[in-house]
Design brief:
The complex is a heterodimer.
Chain A: H1 12-26, H2 31-51, E1 55-60, E2 63-68, H3 70-88, H4 95-113, H5 117-134, H6 140-171, H7 176-182, H8 188-206, H9 214-221, H10 224-253, H11 255-278, H12 283-299, H13 310-338, H14 341-344, H15 363-366, H16 368-382, H17 388-404, H18 406-432, H19 444-459, H20 461-467
Antiparallel strand pairs in A: 1-2
Helix pairs in contact in A: 1-2, 1-4, 2-3, 2-4, 3-4, 3-10, 3-13, 4-5, 4-10, 5-6, 5-10, 6-8, 6-9, 7-10, 8-10, 8-11, 9-10, 9-12, 10-12, 10-13, 11-12, 11-18, 12-13, 12-18, 13-16, 13-17, 13-19, 16-17, 16-18, 16-19, 17-18, 17-19, 19-20
Chain B: H1 2-18, H2 25-41, E1 53-55, E2 58-60, E3 65-72, E4 77-83, H3 87-106, H4 139-142, H5 147-159, H6 170-188, H7 192-201, H8 203-213, H9 219-248, H10 253-258, H11 264-281, H12 290-297, H13 300-325, H14 327-354, H15 358-379, H16 382-413, H17 424-427, H18 429-442, H19 449-464, H20 467-493, H21 510-528, H22 531-539
Classes of the chains: A mainly alpha, B mainly alpha.
C-alpha cells in the first residue's frame, strides 16, 4: 500500500493552531501571550497560503478531504483573528481557558478546509466541545447555560451524524465532491432525508431556526467574552459548514430537497428571529435573537444555490456571514469592554452580564470608543449607511436573490425593516440616552482593532468579497 | 467639480461634527454648503454635446461630466458620478436649500424656538400624529437640546451672548450637511448600487434630525414611522434594482437607459418594485402617511429639507430610474399610477380643507403637489415628463419657503393652530405678504413657478385623450381645491383682527429675509422664464 504525500504547507495554519493549543496547556502564566501569538501566526500563515496557488491534500481518487483555497484560508484567518480578539477582551483567566479557546480555534481552522463529511463533523465538534466548559460560569445560571448548550449541541450533532449516514448510504462516499457526482443517481427519499437532517443539525451552530432556542439563553448566561466567541467565530463555523455542504456536496445532486430545506430554515429564522428580538429589553438577548434573523439572511441565498447563479449565491452567503460575524464581534467586544468590572468578576447577582438596554444610556459620553464601535456595529447590522459593511452584505445577498427568487428577496427586505424597529431604539439609547455612566471602557486596543477592521471592510469591501468568492 | 460638489458636504459634516462645540462650527458648515453650491453651479461649464454614445459597455458623450472609480466590482458597485440636464437642477436645488438651512442655523434665525415649543402631548390639532401617541411618556426627560448639543448650545450662547439668539446646536448643521451629501450623491449617481447606497444614506441623518430636534411631543413617533416607511420602500426598490442589474448585466445607469432598459419579460416586475419603493418616498397615495407626521414634527430646517430634497429623491427616482430602466413597464403601469396620483391630489385637497394646523396643512399639500408630478410622469408624453420635472423643481422652491414662513410664524406665536391665528397682515405685514406670495405660488398662479408644472400636467393628461380626460378634469379640480385651502389658510392667518397670539410679534428680520430671498427670487424667475429649465430637461437622458 502506497502512503500518499501530505501537503504540509496547506496544513500549516492548522499545525500552528494545534501547536498553540498544546503549548497553552503547559506554559502557565504565559498561556495567554502564547495563545495570542500562536493564533496570530496561524492567521498570517493562512493568508500566506491563500496568496499562493490553491492546495489540496488527503486525496481519495480525484476527491480531496482538505482544500486550502482562498475562501477556506480566508475563513481560517478569520477564525484565528476572532479568537485572538476574544482572548484580548477576556482579561485574566486560568490557564486552561486559553487551551480550550485555542482548541476551539483549531477546530474552526480545520473546518474551513474540510471537504468531506467526517472531517467536517469532527472539526465542528472540535470547535464546539471546548465551549461546553467555557460557557459555564460558577453558579446556577452558568450551570443552566452549560447544560442547555450541551444538550442542544449533542442533539444536533446526533441529527447531523444521522443525516451524514443517510447521505453515505445514498451516495457511497463522504467526500463532498463525491456526493456531488453520486447523489444524482441515488435514492431521492434517502437523499432528501439525509440533506434535511444534516442541514438541520448544522443549523444549530448557526443558531438558525428550528434549533435556535439555545442561543438567547446561553449567550445571556455565558461570560461576555465567550458570548462574543459564540456570536462570531462559532456562528461563522456553522455558516461555513452549511455553505460547504450545500455548495460542494448537495447543490449538484440533491438540488430540489436542499433548496426547499434551506429556504424553509431561512424563512423560519428570519421570522422567528425578528419577532423575538422585537420584545427584548436586554442587550444580549436582543443581539442573540437578531442573530437568528441574520442566520436566516445567510441561508437565504443558499436556497437558490442549485440554479445558474449557484456560485454567486454561495459567495454571497459566505460574504454575508463574514460581514455579519465581524459586526457581531464588534458589538459584543464593545459590550464586553464596557460591562461593569463587578460583573466581570462574577460579583453581580442576577441573570446576564450584558444588562438591560437602558443601562447603555449615556455610554456615548462615558466611553466614546466602545460606544462608537457598538453604534457602528448596530447600524451595520441594521444594514444602513454610514456603516456600509452591513449595507454591502445586504446588497450582496439581495443581488443574488432578486433575479432568481424575488419572493425570498422581499422576505429578506421585510425582515430588515422589522430589524430597524429594534436596532434604531438601541442606537438611540447609546447615542442620546441620559443615564448613569456605566463605567469606563476597557480593552481599548482590542476594541479599536475590531473597529478598524470594520472601517476597513466599509472602505474596501472588495477585500472581503474577493476571498469569499468560492471556487469549484 | 463633480467630486467637489459631493465631497465637500461630506467632509463639512465630519468637521462640523468634530468641532461641534466650537463657536465657528456653524460657519464652517455654511462655508462647506456654499462651496458645494458653487461647485454645483459651475457644473454647466464645459458640458458635453448631448450625443449619447456607448463605447465598450460604458456611456460617453452625453453626460456633462462623469467620473468613475472601481469600488467593489464583485457586487457591481462603482463609484460612478455623472450629471446632465435632468439631475443638475435638482442637485443645484439641494445645494441651495442646504446652504439656506445652514445659514438659518448659523444666524439663529429662529432663536426663539430653541426652547421646547409644546409640552403637552401632541394631537392632530397641535401637529401630532392622528393616532394617540402612546410612546411619548418619556418626553419630559428628553426636553432641551440633545446630549452633545447641550454643551455646544451653552458654548454658543456664551460666546454669542451679545447676539442674544440661542442657536440650535452645530450637530444639527452637521446632520443637514450629511443629508445634503447623500442627496447630491443620489442625484449624481451613475451606478445603480451606488444610487441605492446613497438613497439609504439619507435615512439616518434625517431620522436623527427629526428625532433629536423635532417637536418634543410628536417626534419619536414621527421619526420611527419615517424610518420604517423609508427603509421598507428602499429595500423594495433595491430588489427591483438588482433584478434590473441581473437582467442587463451592468449597473451603469446611463448605459442601461440608452440600451433601452431591461428586457420585456421583467420590465413590469422591475417597474412595479421600483415604483413601490419610490412611491413611499415621493410620496404617492396611499403610501403617504409618514409624511404629514414627519414634516410636522421635524424642526423647520428638517421640514425644508424633507419637502425640498427628500420628496425629490422619490420623484427623480421614479422618472429617471424607474422610467428609464423599465420604460415598457412604465407604459404598462401608467394607468394605475395615474389613478393613484389623481386620488392623491383629490384626497390631499379635501384633507387640507379641514386641517386645523399650519405646518400639517403645508405638509399635506405636498402630497397633492407630488400627485401632479406623478400624474404628469404617468401621462408619459414629452410634455408630461417635462411638466413632471418642472413641477418637481418648482415644488422644491415653494414648499420650503412655506415651511420657513410657517416656522417663523410658529416661533413667534408659539402656535400653529389656524383657529388661534389672525391679523398677521396688521401685526407683521412683511411676513404676511411673503406668506401670501408663497401661498399663491403654491396654488399655481400664472407667472409664478407653481403654474407651469400643474398646467402642463393637465395638458399632458388631456393630450392622451379617452379616460385620461377624466383624470385631467379631476386633477384640475384638485388644483381648484388647492386654491380653496390655501386661500382659507391665508384668510385665517393674515386677515381679520389681531388676536392675542399675533399681538406684538416682530416682523420678518433682515436675517430671515436674507435666507428667504433666494427662494422668492427663484420662484419668480422660474415663473416668468420657464424656458431655459425646460430646455435643460430636454437635453437630459430619459
Amino acid at each position: 500500500m502506497r502512503v500518499q504525500a501530505i501537503d504540509h504547507v496547506a496544513l500549516l495554519p492548522l499545525y500552528l493552531a494545534a501547536g498553540t493549543a498544546a503549548l497553552a496547556l503547559f506554559t502557565g502564566r504565559f498561556a495567554k501571550a502564547c495563545m495570542m501569538i500562536g493564533l496570530s501566526a496561524a492567521a498570517i500563515a493562512a493568508v500566506i497560503v491563500a496568496a499562493g496557488a490553491d492546495r489540496a491534500t488527503f486525496a481519495v481518487g480525484p476527491w480531496h478531504s482538505y482544500w486550502a483555497d482562498d475562501a477556506a484560508m480566508g475563513a481560517a484567518a478569520l477564525f484565528a483573528g476572532l479568537s485572538v480578539l476574544v482572548a484580548a477582551v477576556s482579561g485574566r483567566q486560568p490557564g486552561e481557558y486559553w487551551f480550550l479557546l485555542a482548541v476551539s480555534a483549531a477546530g474552526g481552522i480545520t473546518l474551513a478546509g474540510a471537504r468531506d463529511l467526517i472531517t467536517l463533523i469532527v472539526a465542528l465538534e472540535t470547535l464546539t466541545v471546548p465551549l461546553y466548559v467555557l460557557v459555564t460560569k460558577p453558579g446556577r445560571d452558568g450551570a443552566e447555560a452549560g447544560v442547555t448548550f450541551v444538550i442542544a449541541s449533542i442533539a444536533s450533532s446526533a441529527t447531523a451524524l444521522m443525516g451524514a449516514a443517510f447521505l453515505y448510504a445514498a451516495a457511497g462516499t463522504v467526500h463532498l465532491a463525491g456526493l456531488a457526482s453520486n447523489l444524482g443517481s441515488a435514492d431521492p427519499a434517502l437523499t432528501a432525508a439525509g440533506a434535511a437532517l444534516l442541514l438541520g443539525g448544522f443549523a444549530f451552530k448557526l443558531a438558525a431556526a428550528p434549533l435556535h432556542a439555545w442561543a438567547p439563553l446561553v449567550l445571556e448566561r455565558a461570560p461576555l467574552p465567550i458570548a462574543t466567541y459564540l456570536a462570531s467565530a462559532s456562528k461563522l463555523g456553522g455558516a461555513v459548514a452549511i455553505i460547504w455542504v450545500v455548495y460542494f456536496g448537495l447543490a449538484a445532486g440533491a438540488e430540489t430537497s436542499t433548496g426547499m430545506v434551506v429556504a424553509a430554515l431561512s424563512v423560519a429564522s428570519i421570522a422567528i428571529g425578528n419577532l423575538g428580538a422585537l420584545v427584548q429589553r436586554r442587550t444580549v438577548p436582543l443581539l442573540a435573537w437578531s442573530g437568528i434573523a441574520h442566520a436566516g439572511y445567510v441561508l437565504a441565498p443558499l436556497a437558490v444555490v442549485a440554479t445558474a447563479v449557484g456560485q454567486e449565491a454561495a459567495s454571497a452567503a459566505l460574504a454575508y456571514a463574514v460581514f455579519f460575524v465581524l459586526l457581531e464581534a464588534g458589538a459584543f467586544a464593545a459590550l464586553t469592554a464596557v460591562r461593569p468590572v463587578a460583573a466581570a468578576e462574577g460579583r453581580v447577582s442576577g441573570v446576564g452580564e450584558g444588562g438591560a438596554i437602558g443601562e447603555l444610556a449615556g455610554l456615548w459620553r462615558s466611553a466614546p470608543l466602545p460606544a462608537s464601535v457598538f453604534l457602528f456595529a448596530v447600524i451595520g447590522l441594521a444594514g444602513l449607511p454610514p456603516a456600509l459593511a452591513g449595507t454591502f452584505a445586504k446588497v450582496a445577498i439581495l443581488e443574488v436573490l432578486a433575479p432568481s427568487a424575488v419572493w425570498l428577496a422581499v422576505i429578506v427586505a421585510a425582515g430588515s425593516v422589522l430589524g430597524l424597529a429594534y436596532y434604531l431604539p438601541l442606537a438611540r439609547t447609546v447615542l442620546l440616552g441620559r443615564g448613569p455612566a456605566t463605567g469606563k471602557g476597557r480593552f481599548a486596543i482590542a476594541v479599536a482593532a475590531i473597529g478598524l477592521a470594520l472601517l476597513a471592510v466599509t472602505v474596501a469591501p472588495q477585500a472581503v468579497l474577493d476571498f469569499t468568492a468560492v471556487s469549484r | 467639480m463633480l467630486l467637489v460638489a459631493v465631497a465637500v458636504p461630506f467632509f463639512g459634516a465630519v468637521l462640523v461634527w468634530a468641532w461641534r462645540e466650537r463657536a465657528f462650527a456653524h460657519w464652517l458648515g455654511v462655508g462647506a454648503a456654499a462651496l458645494s453650491l458653487a461647485a454645483v453651479a459651475l457644473l454647466p461649464i464645459g458640458r458635453g454635446d448631448g450625443n449619447w454614445v456607448i463605447t465598450g459597455g460604458h456611456l460617453s458623450g452625453g453626460w456633462w461630466h462623469q467620473l468613475e472609480y472601481e469600488w467593489a466590482p464583485a457586487i457591481h458597485l462603482d463609484f460612478a458620478l455623472a450629471v446632465d440636464g435632468v439631475s443638475w437642477p435638482l442637485a443645484a436645488l439641494t445645494a441651495l436649500l442646504g446652504l439656506l438651512c445652514c445659514l438659518h442655523n448659523a444666524l439663529g434665525a429662529e432663536g426663539r424656538t430653541s426652547a421646547p415649543l409644546q409640552v403637552p402631548v401632541a394631537t392632530v390639532a397641535t401637529g401630532g400624529p392622528s393616532l394617540a401617541a402612546d410612546d411619548v411618556s418619556g418626553v419630559p426627560g428628553q426636553l432641551g437640546p440633545g446630549v452633545p448639543g447641550g454643551a455646544a448650545a451653552l458654548g454658543a450662547s456664551g460666546s454669542f451672548a451679545g447676539a442674544g439668539a440661542a442657536r440650535p446646536s452645530a450637530s444639527l448643521t452637521a446632520l443637514l450637511l450629511a443629508v445634503q451629501f447623500a442627496s447630491i450623491l443620489v442625484f449624481f449617481a451613475d451606478n445603480l448600487i451606488l444610487f441605492f447606497i446613497a438613497f439609504e444614506a439619507v435615512l439616518l441623518p434625517m431620522w436623527a434630525i427629526i428625532h433629536r430636534y423635532g417637536d418634543p411631543a410628536a417626534r419619536r413617533h414621527a421619526a420611527a414611522k419615517f424610518a420604517l416607511f423609508t427603509v421598507g420602500g428602499s429595500l423594495v426598490m433595491a430588489t427591483g434594482l438588482f433584478v434590473a442589474v441581473a437582467d442587463t448585466g451592468t449597473a451603469d445607469l446611463g448605459a442601461i437607459i440608452v440600451g433601452g432598459g431591461v428586457g420585456s419579460g421583467v420590465s413590469l416586475l422591475v417597474f412595479t418594485l421600483l415604483a413601490i419603493g419610490f412611491a413611499v418616498k415621493a410620496p404617492l397615495w396611499p403610501l403617504h402617511s409618514w409624511l404629514p407626521d414627519a414634516h410636522t414634527a421635524a424642526p423647520t430646517v428638517g421640514s425644508v429639507l424633507l419637502a425640498g430634497v427628500l420628496l425629490k429623491l422619490g420623484t427623480y427616482g421614479l422618472i429617471r430610474i424607474a422610467g428609464g430602466i423599465a420604460p415598457q413597464g412604465a407604459a404598462d403601469a401608467a394607468p394605475v399610477l395615474a389613478v393613484l396620483a389623481t386620488l392623491g391630489i383629490l384626497i390631499a385637497g379635501l384633507v387640507c380643507l379641514s386641517l386645523p394646523e399650519l405646518k400639517r396643512l403645508i405638509a399635506y399639500s405636498s402630497v397633492g403637489h407630488m400627485g401632479f408630478v406623478v400624474l404628469a410622469f404617468a401621462a408619459g408624453t414629452e410634455a408630461g415628463i417635462r411638466a413632471a420635472l418642472f413641477g418637481n423643481v418648482a415644488h422644491g422652491l415653494i414648499t420650503p419657503l412655506l415651511f420657513f414662513l410657517a416656522g417663523a410664524l410658529k416661533a413667534r406665536t408659539r402656535t400653529g393652530l389656524l383657529g388661534s391665528l389672525g391679523g398677521l397682515r396688521l401685526a407683521a405685514p412683511q411676513l404676511a405678504g411673503l406668506l401670501g406670495f408663497a401661498a399663491l405660488a403654491s396654488l399655481g398662479l400664472p407667472g409664478l413657478a407653481g403654474f407651469w408644472g400643474e398646467a402642463f400636467t393637465v395638458y399632458a393628461a388631456t393630450e392622451r385623450g379617452g379616460a385620461w380626460l377624466a383624470l385631467a378634469a379631476a386633477a384640475a379640480f384638485g388644483a381648484f381645491l388647492a386654491a380653496a385651502y390655501l386661500l382659507r389658510m391665508l384668510r385665517r392667518v393674515s386677515h381679520g383682527p389681531i388676536v392675542p397670539a399675533t399681538d406684538g410679534i416682530g416682523d420678518a428680520s433682515t436675517v430671515e429675509l436674507a435666507v428667504w430671498a433666494p427662494l422668492v427670487a427663484g420662484t419668480l424667475l422660474l415663473g416668468l422664464m420657464p424656458g431655459p429649465l425646460l430646455d435643460l430637461f430636454g437635453e437630459g437622458l430619459l
